[in-house]
């Protein structure tokens, strides 16, 4: 019974709420608070599922990271809110320019086109963050966590958060995707990321070639640097599949996750974590050596 339950967790608790959220917004686009409500609800569902069906029981307890990760979630959601506000302001000026107007299409067409484009931007920045030294140092905070659980989804340097979203926002602006659809895309990504990092024992079978879920994303957080150069997809693992960056999955991933050079980055304060890339870039030897 548990085995079957594992296969319905993602469709029922992640995809269905996202579909309900888009349906509600499609019929009443003035309900700006709805995506936030769905995000909070998804988080509560993930918290319950992590207790009921954890992938690793040791990861259900705080390792001194909980308060810090709550800072990260507020920091990154603030960045998303500012980005959405700027997008809305800029959108009102673009009508005077000779640019495509995807906003003329149906709501749902804009949503799917926009989601694919935005997600590819996330894939692209994530991929080059593993091959470009200065980007890696901004991204390392995300990899510093020594357990993978739902709040790990937002453990990111604020500057890296800005960089990750920029290609997607620029492309959606050029194509003319409506601001309200962009809001839906932001929350779709954030709800999915909760499940991508959730410490929940769930499976997707062959659909792991389409969706980048926890089952495959845990491989990306392995401690050995050489083992984690792949599985970059945010929502869709399709990009990894098409562009040859899928990691080989040998049985179950190791539960030893984090950075492969001893570092106190995992538990240092929020402000220190934001200074760390600039202070450490020249001295963090093992990763620099691996990347030469
Ligand atoms: Zn990464």
Low-confidence stretches: none
Helix content: 55-70%
How many strand units? 0
Largest sheet: none
Which sequence of SSEs, written as H and E, runs from N to C?
A: HHHHHHHHHHH
Q: What would you call the structural class?
A: mainly alpha
Radius of gyration: 19 Å
Give the distance, in angstroms, between the N- and C-terminal Cα atoms: 49 Å
Taken as a percent bin, the fraction of beta residues is under 5%
Tell me the domain tally.
1
Number of helices: 11
The averaged pLDDT comes out at 90
Distinct ligand kinds: zinc ion
The outline comes out as globular
Features:
globular, 292 residues, 60% helix, 11 helices, 0% strand, mainly alpha, binds zinc ion
Describe this structure in words.
With 292 residues, the chain is an all-alpha fold. The protein has one domain (2-291). Helix content is 60%, strand content 0%. It contains eleven helices and no strands. The protein has helices at 2-27, 34-52, 66-94, 107-129, 133-143, 158-175, 179-197, 214-220, 238-243, 270-280, 285-291. It is globular. 40% of the residues are buried. The mean pLDDT is 90.
């Amino acid at each position: 019974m548990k085995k079957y339950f594992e296969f319905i967790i993602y469709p029922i608790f992640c995809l269905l709420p996202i579909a309900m959220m888009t349906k509600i917004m499609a019929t009443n686009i003035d309900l700006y608070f709805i995506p936030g409500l769905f995000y909070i609800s998804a988080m509560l569902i993930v918290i319950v599922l992590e207790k009921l069906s954890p992938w690793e029981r040791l990861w259900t307890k705080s390792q001194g990271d909980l308060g810090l990760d709550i800072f990260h979630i507020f920091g990154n959601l603030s960045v998303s809110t500012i980005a959405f506000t700027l997008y809305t302001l800029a959108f009102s000026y673009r009508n005077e320019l000779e640019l495509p107007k995807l906003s003329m299409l149906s709501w749902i067409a804009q949503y799917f086109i926009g989601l694919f484009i935005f997600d590819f931007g996330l894939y692209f920045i994530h991929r080059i963050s593993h091959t470009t030294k200065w980007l890696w140092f901004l991204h390392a905070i995300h990899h510093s966590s020594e357990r993978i659980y739902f709040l790990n989804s937002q453990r990111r340097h604020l500057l890296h958060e800005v960089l990750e979203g920029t290609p997607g926002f620029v492309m959606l602006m050029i194509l003319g995707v409506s601001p309200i659809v962009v809001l839906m895309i932001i929350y779709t990504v954030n709800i999915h990321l909760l499940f991508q990092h959730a410490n929940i024992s769930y499976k997707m079978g062959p659909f792991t070639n389409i969706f980048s879920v926890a089952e495959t994303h845990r491989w990306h957080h392995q401690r050995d640097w050489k083992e984690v150069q792949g599985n970059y997809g945010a929502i869709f693992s399709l990009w990894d599949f098409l562009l040859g960056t899928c990691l080989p999955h040998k049985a179950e991933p190791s539960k030893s996750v984090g950075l492969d050079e001893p570092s106190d980055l995992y538990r240092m304060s929020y402000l220190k974590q934001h200074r760390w890339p600039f202070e450490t870039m020249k001295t963090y030897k093992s990763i620099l050596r691996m990347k030469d």
